[in-house]
Amino acid sequence: MRRASRRSGRDLGRFGKLHVRHGKGARGSGPRERMVPLINGVGRTLRWFIEDVRGQFDDDHTRPGAPLFPSERKNTDGSSRRAGDDALRDGLKNAAEAHLPGCGKKLTPHVLRHFYASRPYANGLDRLAIQEVLGHSWIATTMRSVHVQQTRVEDAWVTGMERAAKPLEGLVR
Predict the structure, then answer these.
(1) CA 88/CA 93 separation, integer angstroms
(2) What residues does each domain of the chain span?
(3) pTM of full prediction above 0.85
């Protein structure tokens, strides 16, 4: 799992941010650092996890290089390893099978990433903001991750037509 730590400070915005130090690299370009806003109260959930749950696996979250999501497996020096990608995938698959029958094989971390990109876009979030949060170098990559619902296209068309007709309202009898 990726190493992450919460930083605080005025430069991190209204919500604070999660600093992901070892993010996923794309096609061999290597890992990238990312700053992810802690919106929707996720900061409280993260604090709860660190204070109440994480300590069951590794008691020193301040150790340099300590993983946010430690594995129960230990390194040779006794420190915790990072939870592997397979642990997240397997955990998600098991949770989906238990709580979302029929979605177990379809729901993957990558599918959740596409959902994460699409929902804010559908609610009006700027594409450049989504690009930055996802850590994409190119806006085209972000747009491949965003799935636009047909109703959004239709709603945008109606809004555009209403805006175009507004200046003409007084001319029509």
Answers:
(1) 8
(2) 1-83, 84-173
(3) no
